[in-house]
Each structure stands twice: as structure tokens, then as C-alpha cells.
Amino acid sequence: MKKIYPGIDKNNLTGCLNFYDTTIKNISLNVSKSNCEDAVNFVRSYGEIKTINIDDSAFDSIDADFSNLIFQNININKSLNDCIDFSFGNYEVINSNLNYCGDKAVSVGEKSKLKIKELKIANSNSGVVSKDYSETNIDNSLITDIEYCYQAYNKKNEFSGGYLRVKNSTCKNNQKKFFKDKMSLISIENEL
After folding, report:
1. For residues 44-74, b (16+ Cβ closer than 10 Å) or e, as one string?
2. pTM of the predicted structure, to 2 decimals
3. 3-class SS at 171?
4. Which residues of 126-146 are buried (b: 16+ CB within 10 A; e: fewer)?
5. Is the dihedral of CA 125, 88, 40, 71 positive or negative?
6. How many Cα atoms sit within 13 Å of 162 on the Cβ side?
7. Is 157 exposed, middle or buried (0-12, 13-18, 19+ CB in 10 A)?
8. C-alpha count within 13 angstroms, C-beta hemisphere, residue 120
9. Which residues are within 8 A (CB) of 1 and not within 5 positions of it... i.e. 6 or more apart?
10. Residue 132, Cα to own-chain centre: how many angstroms?
11. How far apart are CA 76 and CA 89, in angstroms?
């Protein structure tokens, strides 16, 4: 039986693999069967990641806070919580393939800015969520077999809503295409 990680270790780290105050140059990562709160955790880190492949995470797969990162390729299969969780930073994802995300495939919060160029999501609870003053821009997405494709809302009291712009998107086999609250905006252009 797999022992579940308690959440935070004795050094206050939440990830199985942690990058704190790090400059990253063109690395590739492969993580499998993570039982930590975050399979990979980035905090106050900068740079570019060539490829991240994550399979079978007990909680979040990628968590990044207060960082400025470019991800060339992200491939995640089976994350029991969020596949990607970005907060308080600037992020860019060139190509991503996210399958079986237990909660959100992409979660963007707390004043973050995210650009995604190619996005595929399947068999997940929520597709893309932009909340709490975050701005999310997606070009070319295919989202299938999901509850909500797009969501924008206010979650935390100290913030307001989120902004989500989607261009060249396909959303199919979903229960609901989008949800937004009165403080948020979702713009969908050129739906395929």
C-alpha cells in the first residue's frame, strides 16, 4: 500500500521535487507515482523548462507560485487534484496535453498571467479556470469529456474576478461550456 505524503515535510516543502529561488535553463523532468501535495513545486523561480512528463499524481502535478516560467511541453496523465496550478506569477505554456485531472486541468489564480499556445484536455472535472485577478489567454485548444470547459470567478475575498480569453477552441462532450460570475469575463473567439 502506498503511504500518502502528509502535505508538508519538516522543511515546509510541499513537493516531491522542489525548485525554490532557482534559475532554470532548459531542463526536462519525468515524475511518476507522486504521493506529495505537489509532484513538482516551483517557488520564486525563473527560466524555461523543456519538457515535464508526470504520471499518476496523488494530488497536484505542477504547482508554481511567485515565478516567471516558460514550459515548452507539459504532458500529464492522472492527477487526482489539479494538473497545473499557477499563482502570483507570469507563465507561458507552448504545448500541453492533460488527461484525467481530478479537479482542474489548468488553475490560474492570484494575479497571475498565463499564455497557452496549444492545449489538449480530456477526461477531467474542469478545463481552464481563471480566478482572483488572473488573466489567461489560450490559442488553439481541444477540450473533451469534461464537466466545464472554461470558468472565471472570484474565489478569495481579497481579490476580484478573473479574465479568460480563448481563441480557436473546440469544447465537446461537456456538461456545461462555461461558468463565470458577475465580476469576471470570458471571451471565446473563433470556436471550432
Report:
1. ebbbebeebebbbbbbbbbbbbebebbbbbb
2. 0.92
3. strand
4. bbbbbbbbbbbbbbbbbbbeb
5. positive
6. 29
7. exposed
8. 9
9. none
10. 15
11. 21
Partners of 24 in the β-ladder = 47
Q: Which three cell numbers stand for residue 36?
A: 506529495
Nearest to residue 186, comparing CAs of 145, 146, 141, 122? Answer: 141
SS3 (DSSP) at 26: strand
Q: What is the pLDDT along the chain (192 residues), one digit of tens a residue?
A: 455 555 666 666 889 999 999 999 999 999 999 999 999 999 999 999 999 999 999 999 999 999 999 999 999 999 999 999 999 999 999 999 999 999 999 999 999 999 999 999 999 999 999 999 999 999 999 999 999 999 999 888 887 899 999 999 999 988 788 899 999 999 999 876
Contact in structure between 121 and 144 (CB atoms under 8 Å): yes
Dihedral sign (CA 142, 91, 88, 6): positive
In angstroms, the CA 81 to CA 133 distance is 22
